[in-house]
What does this fold into?
Amino acid sequence: MSERDFDFLMGRWSVVHRRLRHRGEGCEDWDEFPGTAETRPLLGGLCNIEEHSVGGPGVSGIALRTFERAARRWSIYWASERLGQLEPPVTGEFSGVLGRFEGQDTDNGRPVLVRFIWDRSDPKAPRWQQSFSYDEGASWELNWQMDFRREG
It folds into this structure.
């Protein structure tokens, strides 16, 4: 793990989003929609920013990632066009090709644990997944998945 962990994600991407229609309700219906993303380094790679453009209300946004050198871990913050503010971060690290990042948040007023999984096993087609736990980590519900394909 290092400040170079997200180098695979630099550049422009086409993204296929797959989002669970209703979270935390046992729903099995998914919506799928296209988008684009562009990731660029900041502070020589110590941080990076990823901007998502997605057709649909309130879905576009940015991911801001910061690497804390002393702790050797990443913090990932999200800000959507819907809220316009940084949401609570998830923190974690990569082990091999998989990155696992967790944190606390709320979902429609309900406390949740949030988990992001980054799979960079194919640097030309990485995958991101988000899951929520409504029971303090006893079970997890996958609710969003993004498949990236490099443009150009």
